[in-house]
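Give me the fold.
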Amino acid sequence: MKKSWFVLVILFSVIALLGGIKLVGSSSYKAAPQSQVSLALDWTPNTNHTGIYVAIAKGWYKQAGIELNLLPYSASVSSDQLVSSGKADLGISSTEAIVSDAGAGTPVVSIAAIVAHNTSVLAVRQDAGVSNPRQLDGKVYGGFGAPYESAVIKQVIRHAGGTGTFDNVTLDIDPVQALQTRRVDFAWVFAGWEVIEAQRAGLRLTTFPITEYGVPDYSTPNIITSPSTMKAKKALLQKFMTATSRGYTYAAAHPAEAAQMLIDTAPKGTFPDPGLVKQSQAYLSPRYRDAGRQWGIQSQASWHNYPQFMIDRQAVLDTSGKPVKKLNLQALYSNEFLE
């Protein structure tokens, strides 16, 4: 009896000791340190950014050891400038801007295509009676003040049989507002956001997809980084892109749920019309990637045809405003963080 009692005492002591060790181990556990990564947005949050917000909501950046800092859009400094100057690790940009940056000697590199194909259009009020882009000759175009706009618009109009002459003004308001108030006759907008926004506001538009009028197709918008960040933070960029790819792949398969994550995760008050977000997401999710293809992968054709198109039209300028005759097109993009 005494021996049995002694064995029980020993047994309970061992159990208590093991329990204590386990308790101490769990209480002293610390999460892996998070690396800071900054990402500059190109506009206020929208469905071009959904995959990023999905990855935030799902905790996939934190799982990858990343503390993501989103830098809000600023009208005074572009995401490209923040990235090229080292003030942001990454940014959201466009193929048009990336080509212009290279010409100006401030190169950035596209490391992922957010949308597989160009979804931008020239838009005009339906009640203007314009049924063909050639009728845009002599009209007022409201744009962003970017050097690449004129060459693209001239191509669209000329391809349709016009001369490509129009008045170009830089807008300080939303292009849909400018069309709605008749401040301009036509604008360059995205079918997946502004066109839907106009429809929901009761403004009927006639649209002309630019890639149907002799402008080479290209994937845009893009996630960019700088050549120096690519070298210095290669492993970190790999982790970021793995989590981001996961976010966009999820958004492609679950548009309604992804739209709600964007609404819930973005700063409060970002979306006064949640229906716009949901309708836009339904349009964009199947366009993030081609069927059977990994999200974000960029093609050599996309990064050759459009830049060369712009170079041929003397629309890529150096810092002195002179046309650039040649660019290293291969240096404009990289798939290394996705493959």
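The longest helix spans residues 2-27.
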